[in-house]
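S.,

Sequence below, as promised.
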Amino acid sequence: MRGPIAIGLGWPERIPDAAPAFDWSKASTWEFFPLDTDAFPSVGLARHVGQLAGTAPAVFNAANEECVEAFRAGALPFNGIMETVTRVVEEHGTPATGTSLTVPDVLEAETWARARARELTAQTTTANAEARA
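The prediction came back faster than expected:
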């Protein structure tokens, strides 16, 4: 995981020596283990919003994008990403679903989620600043 994490954090630049180079000329094996839901709680939340369907996945994605950007800017701690995304999804409530779901419904939900995630991030940033003072 060091390689993908380094790419995610350093993009578009490369972080030197973050992970060993992969040698495609040699045989190797990959091992897959059951998902550690404690270490990766966002996967469970993603599954949940997928089951909710409707506008919930758009809310999840929009809130996640805003939180990751806030993390990269130093405005949100890493653990705050999942906490904030979860809260935004919970506050979204029952998503619009079924044949009545329209593109404007999805865009409205996405816009709301981005604004709410930014608002919660700002509250976290303020609380962290006050705690340091």
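The mean pLDDT is 87.

Coffee later?
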